[in-house]
Design brief:
It is a single chain. It is built from three helices and three strands. The protein is α+β, with helices and mostly antiparallel strands and 107 residues long. The longest helix is centred in the N-terminal third of the chain and has 13 residues.
């Protein structure tokens, strides 16, 4: 799947780190793991999205290489603490309107 890390046999087989019922949550965690230096992939997301009635029976898996499981678990703890959260207290940047007088006469 697009965005999944490439497989490196020296890191061991892919192992399930966590499961989610929402593919969106799985993709968010995959990005956080990759940002933290741990290769990660999401499995079964398309199955859950295609057959939504199976969502409760077939969770979406976030998988990491076996040898990096400890590092991945630490990153999951950081994710759950909110270490990857974006600040909510900042105002968005303002965009000024163009001040070129030639643009004001155009239809």
């Amino acid at each position: 799947m697009h965005g999944d890390s490439p497989y490196d046999p020296t890191d061991g087989d892919w192992q399930t780190l966590v499961t989610f019922f929402s593919p969106t949550e799985a993709f968010l965690l995959r990005g956080c793991l990759q940002a933290g230096g741990v290769p990660a992939m999401v499995a079964d997301a398309h199955l859950v999205q295609t057959y939504s009635l199976l969502a409760g029976a077939v969770p979406v898996r976030v998988m990491v290489p076996e040898r990096l499981m400890d590092q991945a678990e630490k990153l999951v703890d950081a994710y759950q603490r909110g270490d990857f959260a974006l600040p909510d207290d900042e105002d968005p940047p303002s965009v000024d309107a163009p001040t070129d007088p030639d643009t004001s006469n155009r239809p």
